[in-house]
Amino acid sequence: MPTLSVNGTTLAYDDVGPRDATALVFSHSLFFDRTMFRHQVERFSREYRVITYDHRGQGGSAPSAAASLDMETLSEDAAALIEALGAGPCHIVGNSLGGFIALRLAARRPDLVRSAAALGSSAEEEHKVAEFDPLVQELRANGTRNVVDAVMYIMLGDATLADPEKKELREHWRTYIEQLPPSIGDAAHAVVYRESVLDELSRARVPVLAVAGEEDHAYPPPLSERIAETAPDGRCAVVPRAGHSVALEQPDLANGHLAAHFAAVDGVTR
């Protein structure tokens, strides 16, 4: 597993595909790691350079103090990673937490980002602080062991939770989530208490795609529609039978939207 020291931390990452191709950088959700994008790696690494990485304090990356898990620091981590790998200007794609980062880079770093795609995400401050704060406190005290069912409900849509054909997906991520330590609560706190970037996004100079899961229990489609309405060059797509983890739950549909987005930005005819 390669690692890279940037911005005062060490990030675990994977870097596959042709090095001379346009890069796609994938930024994962809270409670997951970079492997949530395995379907995207399989789909795009033949024609693009595909980079996936774990956020500081999560996955295979270095632990981090709670004060360094805010969205601004995580966005600076992503920018430093892109620079260190010589991957810019890239398409950055983020699911949920990763989408917060993608939108910040779209607004702030057009030198590094040619487009952004935010899946199951929001450009706004958290609207469910009262609902999520007790969960954050439980995570900080005991990790995920007592609240794994609640986390699964937040992260997956109704169809995914009920579909017999998605049993392996559910079991894999339930096992992963159950083993997360109390430090995941620090990362969750930073997510819940993030600031809005709507004003910044209104001045973004790169194309922005927002993809919503039709069954997203955390960030329903109107939040993605707001992203598309706010960005000067924004577009929204809604994926049926998907919840918060769009890239994982309906990979073929998500990949179709991403492929069309990349091609349009790069002026490629399919």
Any idea what the CATH architecture is? 3-Layer(aba) Sandwich
How many structural domains? 1
The rounded distance between the terminal residues' Cα atoms is 34 Å
CATH homologous superfamily designation = Alpha/Beta hydrolase fold, catalytic domain
* Fraction of residues in β-strands: 15-25%
Descriptive notes:
- The structure is a single chain.
- The chain has 270 residues and is of the alpha/beta class.
- It has one domain (3-126, 196-266): Alpha/Beta hydrolase fold, catalytic domain (Rossmann fold, 3-Layer(aba) Sandwich), CATH 3.40.50.
- The chain is built from twelve helices and eight strands.
- The chain has helices at 38-44, 71-84, 97-108, 129-142, 148-155, 158-162, 167-178, 184-192, 198-201, 221-230, 246-249, 251-266, and strands spanning 3-6, 9-16, 23-27, 49-53, 90-95, 113-119, 208-213, 234-239.
- Strands 1-2-4-3-5-6-7-8 form an eight-stranded mixed beta sheet, with helices on both faces.
- The longest helix has 16 residues, at 251-266.
- The radius of gyration is 17 Å and the shape is globular.
